[in-house]
Structure formats: structure tokens, C-alpha cells
Design goal:
The structure holds 2 protein chains of 2 kinds. Chain A is mainly α. Chain A has one domain. Helix content of chain A is about 70%, strand content about 5%. A two-stranded antiparallel ribbon of chain A has the order 1-4. A two-stranded antiparallel sheet of chain A has the order 2-3. In chain A, helix 1 crosses helix 11, helix 3 packs across helix 4 and helix 11 packs antiparallel against helix 13. The longest helix of chain A has 29 residues. Chain A is globular, with a radius of gyration of 20 Å. The termini of chain A are far apart. By secondary structure, chain B is mostly helical. Chain B has 2 domains: about 80 residues; about 260 residues, ABC transporter involved in vitamin B12 uptake, BtuC (Orthogonal Bundle), CATH 1.10.3470. Chain B is about 75% helix and about 0% strand. Chain B is built from 15 helices and 2 strands. In chain B, strands 1-2 form a two-stranded antiparallel ribbon. In chain B, strand 1 and strand 2 form a beta hairpin. Chain B is globular and about 75 Å long. Chain B starts with a helix and ends with a helix. Classes of the chains: A mainly alpha, B mainly alpha.
Chain lengths: ~325, ~375
Amino acid sequence: MNIMYFIIQQTMFFAIPLLIVALGGMFAERSGVVNIALEGIMVMGAFISIFFISIFQGTLSGQGLLILAVAIAAVSGGIFSLLHAFASINLKADQTISGTALNMFAPAFAVFTARMIQGVQQVQFADTFHISKVPVLGDIPVIGPMFFQNCYITTYIGVIIFIVAAIVISRTKFGLRLRACGEHPQAADSVGINVYKIRYAGVVISGALAGIGGLVFVIPTSTNFNGSVAGYGFLALAVLIFGQWRSKGIFGAAFFFGIMKTLASTYSGIPVLKDLPIPNEVYKMIPYAATLIVLACVSKNSQAPKAEGIPYDKGSR
Amino acid sequence: MKVKKKVKEENKKLINFSSSVLAIVAGLIIGFLILLFSNPQQALTGFLTILKGGFADGASGIGQMFYVATPIIMTGLSVGFAFKTGLFNIGASGQFTMGAFAAIFVGIKWGWLPGEIHWMVALLAAALLGALWGLVPGILKAFLNVNEVIASIMMNYIGMYLVNMMVVKNIYDQVKNQSMPVIASANLPKAGLDKVLGPNMNIGIFIAILFVIVIYILIEKTTFGYELKACGQNPHASKYAGINAKRNIVLSMSIAGALAGIGGALLYLAGSGKYLQVLDMIAPEGFNGISVALLGLSHPIGILFAGLFIGHITVGGYNLQLYDFVIEVIDIIIAVIIYFGAFALLFKNIIRTFIKKVKEDKSV
């Protein structure tokens, strides 16, 4: 039983950042802008917020500091994503190009700034955020150890983001307009929706969520930030497509990948798997191979937004 | 009529070229500002070091520039070639790594081959394994409609872990946690170039240039290349015209994979003391290839010069470390150049108005 609790707790650490970032990607792509820059925005959000933690951890600590850091990650991610929005919406640039530029810029900027300011590229921070047991809730049998012990507040932030995002995209006026801009911007424009504004909103939301995702990825798994989020932005892109651009699908895909990844990194603690004569690397490959196979099975009828990746030009109606 | 068309074509080329140059200038200016901001005293010296790049240390610097440029020209060709068919090959990293492994494996284990063809067989093996790694996303895209970006990203990770496993199993140097050195006959011939242009110089750059020419002919002068471009520009129209789009997607991805794989071989068979490290890290050369392809506007000749340019300022970045600067400033400059490259439309309009103005002035 303990092993199962451990696996579930670990799954959260892998799945929640993917969930948050992929939801961010959903807002950009459903509004019609491909955001391949998620990786770079994650790096930027993680770098600035962890730098903030490392500076202020003398005066602040615990959950208050973490929540402030989450807010800073969101703001920095949102601002950084404006560059992508400007290029792809105003200048009608190729969205892959500006996304690639952001992906390249962020880690270089993080390492450059860290080394220029503090000499080494790792930004250290003390982990004062770990919650060994949530009061009251942590004592509930079965559910308590699964979700409310040995955890981080970021897990709950992730779940809240999921619920809010799911409601916003499918139950609000803004969500409907956003989806309309991604499917048929000309039609949306003809009924008085400002396509440019909506797309800006989509990209900035995706930037804010990706920024948070970067921080959420680093906090539980490390005590320093080294200018990289290990390709999680690209994986989030895969989760987004795997989840067919729908919030529920993304939720399922993120946890599917999270569980696979957890099994790959903790298999040596699971008696049945440990005894199998399979090399370590094969386990590490499984999440990616499984995603590929699942994609091969479900991609035939892709539900990608129709106007995705196409700059909107008012004149070309 | 024909003359007029030719003039237009030339104008277009000029405009494309000058918008790339404008992007480079913008990138360099921002790079200079960053240097100025972080260390004002040495900013100018540092900036000149970047500009001098490979030309700072005489002939060996040029050799170093060729050495850095060779693999990214190949991955750039790989990405650019797939772009022509409308495919985004973000998997050049995985193909590069697979190619590198194949080349090293042949280089170590197949010592029975005659010395003259040993390195050629190693290159061929690299091309084959790279092609295989491009083939998989190609097939998935063509027949199962799997997004090639995602499939290639997955293949990057699978390739990285697979290569780590195979290196450890077959050709492992336990002490250094890397692959063993290859037999000397598997290294690319130096052809005496190392005496002129420094120890890392070999015929690799010429092999890369050869592939630039081959790909140029393939894209511009053959029916197959025309079909590929047609598929990239308008899949529906090309399907209507009877072009087999599925076959073209698979072939395009396989050729792209082979090019990236050869890139891996050219780097690891250079005899420069570089070995495959057993690390959980995706090869950066593939992502640099994306930059090279974008900067070179996916045109083979453009890619050649873009690769040389990035090699040039990367060598400048190594030298920059003499002046208390961090080498990452080079990546920042390249990122800014690419970002401004995305502004091509804007730049092109500016240049077009400029050309028009000049012409009007002349006619007045």
C-alpha cells in the first residue's frame, strides 16, 4: 500500500506541471496561435520566480513565499509571451519561427543572467515548501496519504487551474469567443469580435500558465534551477495534442504521461518490476513510446482548431 | 516579358537576402546592448571579438569555425529540407544522435573493413540509422495523421535513451562515462588540412558542402523536388495533380533524417576528442539546425552560409570568455536574429518601398 501511495504522490510531481502548461497551450491554440514557445516560457517563468525565491528566502519562507513566486512566474511568463503574440498576431509572422526564437532565448538569458550576477549558473533555493501532512485532510484514510501527505501546495494550485480553465473555455462568453477565433476568425470578426484582442488574451494566458508550470516543475524535484526544464514544454505540447485540445482530454493525457514517467523513475522500488531483466533505459523510454503508440491510434480524426497557425488578416476575407 | 520576370525574380532574391541581413544587424545590436549593460568597460572589445569570430586566431580559428559549422549545416539542411515539404522536423536531434551512434559503432567494431572505405561505411551507417529515425514520424504522419512535431519529439527521447543503452552495452568507456574512441581509419581523412587550419580540421566541411549541392539540385532541378515543394505549398492542389503526397512525406522525412544522421557522423568522426556522453540530454545540434534553417530561409545555399555564420560567432563566443563574458550571449544573439527573421514580412515591405523610392528618384 505504501508503494502505491508513493507512486501517486510522485505522479503528481510529474503530471501537474504538464497539466498546467498544456492547459496554457490550449488557450493559445484554441484562439488560433500555435505556441511552440511553451518550453522557453517555462524556463523564463521558472528562472525569474526562483531567482525571486533565492533573493527573498531570508526574509520570507513557506507557503506565502511560494504563492508570491507563483504570481511572479505567471507575470513573467505572460510578459515574455507578449513577444510571441506581437510577432504572430501583429506582424503575421511564421509562428514556428518566433516560437523557436523564444525557446532559444530563454535558457540563454537565464544562464547568462545567473552567471553574470552570481557567478554560477545554478540558482539555489531552500525547499521550505514541502508539506508532510495537510491538517485534517491528511488524516482521512486512503485518500489522505494519496493526496494530502508529502505534497506541495502547487498540486492544489494545478487542480484549481484545471477547474477554472475547463469552465472558462467551455462555459463562458470569453471561452466561446476564443474558440470561435481559433475555428473561423472571419466569422468571429463579422459578428464584432476583435480577433486580435482575443488572440492576444489566448497567448498571454498560455504564457502565464506556462510560467507557473515552469516553477511548479522545478520546486518538488530539485533545489536549484539550472536553466532548463528538461523538455517539459515540448512534452506539454504532446499532451495538448494527445488530449485533442480539450481540457478533459488534457487532464487524462497529463496523468497518463505522469504515471508512465513515475513508473519509469520508481520501478526499482516496485518488487515485481525490479526483478524483470529489463535495463533502466527501457523504462525511461516507455512514456515516450507509449505516447507515440496512443497518438498513432487516436490521430486519425484530429480535432485541431481549424485556423490554428494561420495569421488573421482582416483584408483576406 | 521574360526579362521583366527575371528582374522581378532578382528583386525577390535581393529582398530576401537583405531582410536576413537586417535581422542579423538587429541581433548584433541587441547583443552589443546586452554586453554594454552587463559590463560597460569591456563591451566594445567583447563585441569586436564576436564580430571577428573565427578570424581572430588566424588559420586555426577558421578551421575551428568549419568544425563547429559542419554538423549544424547538416542538421540545418535536414530541417530546411523537411520545411520544403511543409514538415517541421524538430527531431533532427534524435536523428543526429542515432547517426552519431551508428558511425561510432561501425568505427569501433568494424575494424576488419579496409582502411580506405571504413569511414565511408561509417557515414553510410549513420545515414541509414538517421533515415530510420526520420522514417518513423514520416510514416506516422502520412498514414495515421500523427502530428510530425510531436512524433519527432518523442523520437528524440526514445533515440537518446536507446543510444545511451547501446553505448553502455557495446562501446562503453566506464571510467569516463562515454563511448570508446574509434579506430583511426574510421576518422574522416584530414587530407593535410589539419596542418594548415588547425587540429580539428578535416574534409567534413567539404562533405557538408557536397550535400548542400546535392540537396540544391534535388530540390530545384528534379521532378521529385518539385513534387515535394508542391506538397509543402498546397497539399490539396498537389493531390489533385496526381502527386503521391504520402510517399513524398515519408521520403522527405527519411532524407531529412539521413542528413541529420550524417551530421552526427561528421562531428563524432572528426577525431577531435569528442565522444558520445551517456547523459539524459537531447543533442543541441538538432535545435541549432532549426536556427540555421530559419536563418538560411530553408534554401540550401542560404543554410550553408547561415551555418558558417553561426559557426563564426560561436567561435567568437569561445574567445569572448577571455573578457569575463558568458558564452551564452551568443545564443541570445542568435535567438534575437531568428526572432527578427520572423519579421521578414515587415522588413520586406520596408525594403520594397526603399527600392521603389530609389528607382523613382532615378527616373526623375
